[in-house]
Specification:
With about 375 residues, the protein is α/β, with parallel strands linked by helices. The chain is built from eleven helices and 15 strands. A seven-stranded mixed sheet has the order 3-2-1-6-7-14-15, sandwiched between helices. Helix 1 crosses helix 9 (about 300-315) and helix 5 (about 155-175) packs across helix 6 (about 190-200). The longest helix has 22 residues, at about 155-175. The protein is elongated, with a radius of gyration of 22 Å. Bound molecules: 6-O-phosphono-beta-D-fructofuranose. 6-O-phosphono-beta-D-fructofuranose binds near residues 119, 144 and 187.
Length: about 375
């Protein structure tokens, strides 16, 4: 895998912000400068900054004191796709492929490799840029934990911690008012946050996209609890969950975004549906972007540091167009082409699903 020695790299963060992004940037930049004497550029606002040629040199000091800071010092964007850039034309949008311009911008600055920190949308674009000849190393980011090829993404642990705290806190209102409290967490196509936070917070019902629920089973379950003297129930629901005969609840569509659908609202729908069927008082809390905010947990800080360091070491060794992963406890990598267009969902027979069922949790089926 040995290739030409790299002298200059760029780093960018794409997609939604996520706790631990700065920890990865810090690890990439410090390893590059400290250990390998490379020149490092920081691209602003993800692919949008690459398209618009907005980038600056990064020094060791630029990345000092950011390990514990949430968000990304580089800025990010989840609405720009170099292969399908939405450009307003009058009242309508036209789509243009500006990927060649992106490659030219990097070549003009003599940047030889790109570290792309992002989720599935970012990696799908990265794989296509790699096919055009760009040297890329991906780092798996998303609170949803749904990137194919890695057992875990950084940001997930922090999101689960935040969601679990929220579930712990709504117990107070649930038990005092004898209500059904519904906590809606993120997770478009994969229910990892709902599953982990639901189990950790002792939710009575966990609803995830991979297991479409039957509303009558959910209602029977909460009514059954009331009959047994448990006068409240807690439901953890992923934003992408849907009833067996229903659809995901879409809150908006963003033209030009690599994944244009934005979800939100299943919690309120459930509160209405369960309230109407059971007569129980129901309330919903949508956690939304709270889950992406704040300082990363120690686990995410160390995972992000390991991912950033591994990405740089692999690039320096001459590996390209791979995504750094943590698989079976080992840091390694997988080809970007294998990752693009796939996501890692919760298997119905996952050990944690089986454990949750064993302790009496309902998945609404
Ligand atoms: O992919 C990460 C994520 O946080 C999803 O869980 C969520 O559906 C989406 O991003 C929200 O995107 P936005 O920040 O554009 O509302």
């Amino acid at each position: 895998m040995a290739g030409k020695r790299i002298r200059s790299i760029a780093v960018m963060t794409g997609g939604g912000d996520c706790p631990g992004l700065n920890a990865v940037i810090r690890a990439v930049v410090k390893t590059a400068i400290n250990k390998h004497g490379l020149e490092v550029w920081g691209i602003q606002d993800g692919y949008l900054g690459l398209i618009e040629n907005r980038m600056d040199r990064l020094s060791y000091n630029d990345v000092s004191n950011i390990l514990t800071v949430g968000g990304t010092i580089l800025g990010t964007s989840n609405i720009a796709n170099p292969f399908r850039l939405a450009v307003p034309k009058g009242r309508r949008l036209q789509y243009r492929d500006v990927s060649d311009d992106c490659l030219r911008v990097l070549a003009e600055r003599k940047i030889e490799a790109l570290v792309c920190i992002g989720g599935d949308g970012t990696m799908a674009v990265a794989a296509r840029l790699a096919e055009k000849g760009l040297t890329i190393m991906g780092v798996p980011k998303t609170i949803d934990n749904d990137l194919y090829g890695t057992d875990v993404t950084f940001g997930f642990d922090t999101a689960v911690t935040t969601a679990t705290e929220a579930i712990d806190k709504v117990h107070t209102t649930a038990s005092s008012h004898h209500r059904v409290m519904i906590v809606e967490v993120m997770g478009r196509y994969a229910g990892w946050i709902a599953l982990h936070a639901g189990v950790a917070g002792g939710a009575d019902v966990i609803l995830i996209p991979e297991i479409p629920y039957d509303l009558s089973k959910v209602c029977e379950y909460v009514i059954g609890r009331s009959r047994r003297g448990k006068r409240f129930s807690i439901i953890a629901v992923a934003e992408g969950a849907r009833a067996k005969d229903g659809q995901m609840v879409v809150s908006r569509r963003i033209a030009g975004s690599p994944d244009p659908i934005r979800l939100g609202g299943i919690g309120h729908k459930l509160a209405n549906d369960i309230g109407a069927r059971t007569g129980l008082e129901c309330r919903a809390v949508i956690l939304g972007h709270v889950q992406r905010g704040g300082t990363p947990t120690p686990y995410d800080r160390t995972l992000a540091t390991n991912f950033g360091h591994t990405a740089l070491e692999l690039l320096v060794k001459g590996l390209k167009n791979h995504l750094v992963v943590l698989k079976d406890g080992r840091f390694s990598s997988i080809g970007l082409g294998q990752v693009a267009g796939r996501i890692r969902t919760v298997p119905r027979n996952h050990a944690l699903v089986r454990a949750a069922v064993a302790v009496g949790t309902s998945f609404g089926v």
